[in-house]
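User: I'm preparing a small set of examples for a lab meeting where we compare how different chains pack in three dimensions. I only have the primary sequence for this one, and I'd like the structure in token form so I can line it up with the others. Please keep the answer compact; I'll paste it straight into my notes.
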Amino acid sequence: MPELLYRLEGFLGACLLRALRRSLRIEASGQPPNHHPCVYALQHRDLILLAMQRTDCGIAVMSSKSKDGELISRPLKRLGFLPVRGSSSRGGAEALRKLIKLTKKYSLAITPDGPKGPAGSVSPGVLQLAYLGKIPIIPVSAYAVRQWELNTWDMLRIPKPFTTLKARYGEEIWVKSRDDFAKAQEAIKSFWAEA
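Assistant: Understood. Below is the structure token output for the 195-residue chain.
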């Protein structure tokens, strides 16, 4: 896709999401302050919901190097996020290094089941990031009272206008050694299962 079309998509996508956000009632429980450095672990299906809930908060977000990642990165940047390109399959080590450096200034948002699933899985990248960055993981989930679920691998959720968007943040999960990986992985999955 030509650069001009990517720019247009980023602009229009962000405008549409901001307009939709203005129509929503947003409720969040357990949300830490914006300056609290952590890794937010969210399911890929909740990406749009949580982007709308945390607009203009300066969170670094990992997105894949694919064309889909480009389509996601442009609107996210205009919504006040800091996109970092890479994924578990393409450029993952490079993105991990970038994200570890960013832990000094930013909170991070990762979809451990992305970019291709399986839905609800927790890849080791988020655990590695928390361990090396010495910051906690905070699992997060969201839903809208009325929402569309797309027929995609992750069942991506989009809130319908004039509904209530509810976000729930879990307790901190610390990964202080590699021995904590399995326990942290199960804690994230358990939190998501309650959502």
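A couple of notes for your slides: The chain is about 40% helix and 20% strand. The CA atoms of residues 48 and 86 lie 19 Å apart.

User: Perfect, thanks.
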